[in-house]
Every structure is written in structure tokens, then in C-alpha cells.
Amino acid sequence: MEVKLDNGQISSDKDEVLNKWKCDFSNMFNRNDDSDVNICENDVDVLYDDMLDCEISVEEVFNVLKSSKNGKSPGYDEIPVELYKNQTMLNALTRVFNICFDSGKVPAMWSKGIITPIPKSSTSDPRDPLSYRGITLAPVSYKLYCGVLNSRLTYKLDDIDFLCDEQNGFRKGRSTVDHLSTLATIIETRKLRKQSTYVAFIDFKKSLRLDK
């Protein structure tokens, strides 16, 4: 395997290849010290919400488990989702999740993941690690816990009508394809009326970086 070094040279040396991948992905995903936000607990008003802060129920965990597909790659702990799909494990997961929820702490194992690089584009330089999107295989138990919290937040945001109606991405029962269909209809209608249409497409690079 080859990589393009910072000086532009191409190397196939194993140590240089591994170090280049490590450095590039570390710089991409790790926060800078000056970007960390220090929050004083004494300065934060803690508000209790019946919907968000109540004890995690077995039903909540069951619903997330039910929507999890079998046959998916496990995470660092190599425990597949199928192992959790029984009543004994369901009860155990619920107890563990409530401990995490009440304490605000999670098992150290959940902070470990296996990063699988996926090419961003067929035209990108395969020798550049930044031409790949890192997909992390996290422990299934961690993903299930996140699924429970995400379900609560999603339900709450919908309940208070927080999201604007124009947002279709990352919303249940909606698709960004709906926007494409609407845009195509608008363009065709304006063409029939002999009107010009101007559309701006913005591709944000590294839009999900934590320090941006």
C-alpha cells in the first residue's frame, strides 16, 4: 500500500504508511485544546424534563433492539446484536443503561471503535488518507444506548415543534429526495413560464468536525 507524504513524496514503507494514516485521522477527529468549552457546573441551571429525564424503560430498549438489523458487523468487543435479542439480555441492558443515564458515565469499552476507511470518491487520490471517510464500528451496546437517547430527543423535538418544516434530512418518515422532487417541479414550472431559476448547491467539507 502506498501513501502520499506531506512533502509530496510517495511511500510504501509500512511504518510511514501507518504513521501517515494515524496522523491524518487523528488530526481530523481530535479536538484542539483551544476549542474545548469548559463548563462550570455551578453556572448551569439544571432543568428536569419528564419526557427526557425519566428512567429508561424496558420498552424503550426493546423498540431500539427491534429496529436493529441482524448480520451487522460488531464493534471492538465483537458482540453481535443477535446476542442481545432475548429477555435476559434485554433486562440486563436496561439496568446498565439506567446506571449510565443516572451517573452520566459510560463503560470505557464504549470509547473504543474500529475505523474502516471508505473512499469518498472514485476520482480521489487513493494514496491520500483524507480521500477516505472513516466509518467507526462501535460496540452494539453503545449504539443501542445512543438509540434510546436519540429516540427520546427526536420525540421531544417533534413534540415541541422545534425543527423547521423544511428539514427533511435525519427525520423519520422523510427523505431529502422529497426536496429534489419539489425542486424539479419548481424548475419545470418556471421553464414553462419562461422564467430563469438560480440554484446554489453548497458542499461543506468536513462539516461534522467537532472543532468547527
UniProtKB/TrEMBL annotation:
It comes from the Eukaryota. This is Reverse transcriptase domain-containing protein. It comes from Mytilus edulis (Blue mussel). InterPro entries: DNA/RNA_pol_sf.
